[in-house]
Specification:
- By secondary structure, the chain is an alpha+beta fold.
- The protein is built from 19 helices and 22 strands.
- β12 and β13 form a beta hairpin.
- α4 packs across α12.
- It is globular, with a radius of gyration of 30 Å.
């Protein structure tokens, strides 16, 4: 405890400006050599140590989360540093010596990303391949070479970075963009401050349509700047979106950028429909301290903040406490529709969703948005989504904390709403790519007249989206398209999309998409054990209308029983008329076959093979 208190005093002194170290945090360091300079002294930087082997070869080490503090954790995956050669041209080989074992990523072609300042400020995947191997004592070791051809400073990172400062600048630019449009409603405020006094922002995006003069309420200990809260939108449903609870999961910020860019697009009529009908409430960075320090998974105190939603502390988990307060208030006023928490994944390939395990009809509603996202986005993989109960309570390998404390599960239990999701994007690539169709123009104001005739079982089973199995590596645009698909799919769900891929697909309407989901779920556990669904499942060809009524209206219609064949009926009568024989084996089977042959051959002549059986001794 004394060690922890000493560290806290030092951190308070740094924050107040009383201490000004060259290396403010252990992750953010400077390493100068006669021919090159390595630097990670910036927001989200991470580089622990550099050892020179020779002029063109250097060994580099990643800093674990919160290194040198009582809260150090063994997460060593995120790195972000710059290299400035002092002589040009130069080809230098860099070897990362101590990364956590991320073999699944690198086996599939994962490479670092880089940008060159000032000549090429856009992040790109490294064009050269890597050599890598697993070291049992230190973790994953990989090496790559880079040719420095001009007087640039080259930045390298584990994945496409999105720092705390970049986030602040991006939303300031968004605010300026919104001011130039009379139709866009954009409000930015400080929800709460982190334990290191950084802003946890809350963004509200909608249109001025349906705006009330009333304001959102103030909350105890929240909104430290005491500014004016956003206007209320009584007729609209709210969607809550959060990102970067795990600081190294930078693809989540690019997903969020795609969503926000779409919502602020004044040239896309779908964006206008999204703003006019919904309010998007966004927390861009839940863990700003971890992001700034260059951590991979935890906050300043070594906590995985996505395990404390059941009972968050105002002092220990301020961003989680504040987010839950906002969500519970929206639920209490019947305004909350959906919740998306954005993440990145290092092991499972693809972009996909973790949802909750619900009862049959609610599960179809929960699966609908991910299914629609797969129709609207090439990179999103519906088949990789997981809605199992096991995934609601699985425990982490490292700290043993359960997913029951995650935002998706804990807030679902607190609100009893169905549309609560964790959205995951692999850092590198997916398993498949969807073939998206060209959208069809529809009028959302027109009353939809769906055909009364429910499609047959065979027809619905043939309603599938095309997929490619040659998947490209993900870039920023890949993640941004996933973010855009969130808003587009919500429009499709409520049939408010003026340019709908659903209408242009083989499904034709959302009702058929829901039926398709239902036909898949009805065959899976635990739904196939449900007494009513079990009856439907036995003869789906004849029970499509009953299934449709149950899905759409919660009406358990009359079930058409499966018609048994003549042989099955006769065998059933035979088994009821005579008790089963005690003898098991060829003789017992032969007797049953004999009875079936007699039933199907009413001719007096008994076939020779069966005739032998008539002379068998009586079985006692």
């Amino acid at each position: 405890m004394e060690e922890q208190r000493t560290w806290e005093v030092q951190e308070e002194a740094k924050a107040s400006g009383e201490v000004r170290d060259k290396n403010f945090h252990p992750q953010q360091t400077l390493h100068e050599f006669d021919n090159v300079v390595f630097d990670s002294r910036f927001d989200s930087g991470n580089l622990a140590r550099v050892d020179k082997v020779r002029d063109d070869l250097f060994n580099l080490y990643i800093t674990p989360d919160n290194a040198g503090t009582p809260f150090e954790k063994g997460y060593r995956t995120w790195f972000h540093f710059s290299v400035t050669p002092l002589r040009y041209p130069a080809t230098i080989t860099l070897t990362i010596k101590n990364m956590n074992c991320q073999l699944k990523l690198y086996n599939e072609g994962m490479v670092p990303v880089y940008k060159c300042l000032p000549s090429s400020p856009t992040w790109k995947r490294l064009p050269t391949s890597l050599t890598y191997k697993h070291q049992s004592d230190s973790g994953l070791e990989f090496a790559f070479s880079f040719k420095f051809e001009r007087e640039d400073t080259v930045y390298f990172a584990f994945s496409f970075p999105w720092s705390y400062i970049e986030n602040q600048k991006y939303f300031e630019a968004c605010e300026e963009t919104a001011r130039q449009s009379k139709d866009i409603y954009f409000h930015k405020e400080v929800l709460i401050r982190s334990r290191e006094k950084r802003n946890v922002d809350l963004i509200t995006i909608s249109s001025t349509k349906g705006m009330s003069n009333e304001r959102e309420p103030m909350f105890y200990a929240l909104f430290p700047e005491k500014g004016q809260r956003p206007n209320l939108f009584p007729s609209k449903k709210y969607i809550f979106v959060s990102a970067r609870v795990h600081p190294g999961e930078t693809p989540s910020s690019w997903v969020l950028k795609g969503l926000v860019d779409f919502l602020l697009d004044t040239k896309d009529e779908r964006s206008a429909w999204a703003r006019d009908n919904f309010v998007f409430v966004i927390v861009p960075i839940l863990n700003p301290d971890g992001v700034y320090r260059g951590n991979y998974r935890t906050d300043t105190y070594g906590l995985n903040l996505n395990r404390f939603y059941i009972s968050p502390s105002l002092t220990e988990h301020p961003s989680i406490f504040a987010s839950k307060e906002i969500i519970l208030n929206l639920k209490a006023e019947n305004r909350l529709l959906a919740y998306f928490d954005l993440h990145a994944h290092a092991t499972k390939k693809g972009c996909f969703i973790f949802g909750n395990a619900l009862e049959f009809r609610s599960q179809i509603d929960c699966c609908l948005i991910p299914k629609l996202m797969s129709m609207n986005c090439a990179a999103f993989e519906y088949e990789s989504c997981d809605f199992t109960e096991r995934n609601m309570y699985a425990k982490d390998r490292g700290d043993g904390l359960s997913k029951e404390g995650s935002g998706r599960v804990a807030l679902y239990k607190a609100t009893n709403l169905n549309l609560f999701y964790t959205l995951e994007c692999n850092y590198n690539m997916g398993r498949t790519t969807n073939v998206t169709v060209k959208p069809a123009r529809v009028d959302p104001d027109e009353e939809r007249k769906h055909p009364e005739l429910v499609p047959s079982y065979e027809t619905l089973m043939n309603m599938k989206s095309e997929m490619n199995y040659n998947t490209p590596f993900y870039v920023q645009k890949s993640f941004e398209e996933v973010g855009e698909s969130i808003a587009v799919s919500i429009l499709d769900m409520f049939e408010l999309n003026p340019l709908s891929r659903v209408a242009a697909s083989s499904f034709r309407n959302v009702a058929n998409v829901k039926m398709s989901i239902g036909l898949t779920l009805i065959k899976k556990m635990p739904f196939r054990l449900d007494p009513y669904l079990r009856k439907l499942n036995k003869n789906l060809d004849e029970n499509m209308e009953a299934l449709s009524s149950y899905i759409e209206k919660n009406i358990q219609g009359k079930v058409v029983e499966e018609q048994k064949s003549t042989n099955e009926k006769r065998l059933l009568c035979f088994s009821k008329a005579r008790p089963p024989t005690k003898q098991v084996g060829k003789v017992a089977i032969a007797k049953i076959e004999f009875e079936l042959v007699k039933a199907n051959n009413p001719v007096k002549r008994v076939p020779p093979v069966v005739k032998k059986l008539t002379s068998l001794p009586r079985i006692k």
